[in-house]
Amino acid sequence: MSRLSESSEVSKITVIIPALNEEKAIGRVVRSIPKEQLNKMGFSVQTLVIDNGSEDRTAEIARMSGAEVIFEPRRGYGRAYKAGFANAIGDLIATVDADMSYPANDIPKLAKLLIEEDLDFVTTNRFSYMDPDAMSLRNIIGNVILNLVTRLLYGIDLKDSQSGMWLFKRALLDRLICKSDNMSFSQEIKLDAIYYNKCRWQEVPIRYRCRVGEQKLSGWSDGPRNLLALFRKRIHR
């Protein structure tokens, strides 16, 4: 019998979804969170959509779909997550993007793994089951370079250092020092948890799908910036 079924306590899980002009997908993402399944596992669910300065109906649709909306007008992927963490009440924190590219229905599986294996942090690997058109060749090459540099600098065998879907214990937040306000936040939180805090972790393969809506990532600017951030983090945490 798993620890989940043995526990009589009702735990909380917060799902954080950073969003910038994602009106085409945000409702589907919020509704795809398997609340009923998580409830049966003993979790109450808090869904936070972090509106990062949207100029469309993202916030309205998210609220209508059942999410709590937090406004962070200062744009930046890292800033959005920091606002989400500040408002999260869950014992566990899960993350997905607002564009339908990540499988929110896998959250129960990740939570079960974390609890049964006594882990602190679970991250995901998009490259195991990636839809053919989900990522451009340029971005695939960029990810390969970033993964290689991560292994060389930190000795961590991450197959996907840039994945934006994670699940971790809220208690870990107090030990993290994540300074990035932009896209490099995704790699930084993994490095801080795994390398600097020596937490128990696993990387899990997921299906990665084509995004719905406009692409926000800029390979020509975000890629080099993330690469520099890897060196900067290694020199000075």
Task: Describe the overall structure.
With 237 residues, the protein is of the alpha/beta class. The protein has one domain: Spore Coat Polysaccharide Biosynthesis Protein SpsA, Chain A, CATH 3.90.550. It is built from nine helices and seven strands; from the N terminus they run αβααβαβαβαβαβαβα. The protein has helices at 3-6, 26-32, 35-40, 58-64, 77-87, 107-116, 137-154, 185-196, 219-235; strands at 11-19, 43-51, 68-71, 92-95, 121-130, 166-169, 201-208. Strands 3-2-1-4-6-5-7 form a seven-stranded mixed β-sheet, with helices on both faces. Helix 7 runs parallel beside helix 9. It is globular and about 45 Å long.
Q: Topology of this protein?
A:
Elements: H1 3-6, E1 11-19, H2 26-32, H3 35-40, E2 43-51, H4 58-64, E3 68-71, H5 77-87, E4 92-95, H6 107-116, E5 121-130, H7 137-154, E6 166-169, H8 185-196, E7 201-208, H9 219-235
Parallel strand pairs: 1-2, 1-4, 2-3, 5-7
Antiparallel strand pairs: 4-6, 5-6
Helix pairs in contact: 7-9
From the alpha-carbon coordinates, what is the Rg to the nearest angstrom?
17 Å
CATH homologous superfamily descriptor: Spore Coat Polysaccharide Biosynthesis Protein SpsA, Chain A
Beta-strand percent range: 15-25%
Terminal-residue CA separation: 41 Å
Biggest sheet: strand arrangement: 3-2-1-4-6-5-7
Arithmetic mean pLDDT: 93
Order of helices and strands: HEHHEHEHEHEHEHEH
Number of domains: 1
Number of strands: 7
The total of helices stands at 9
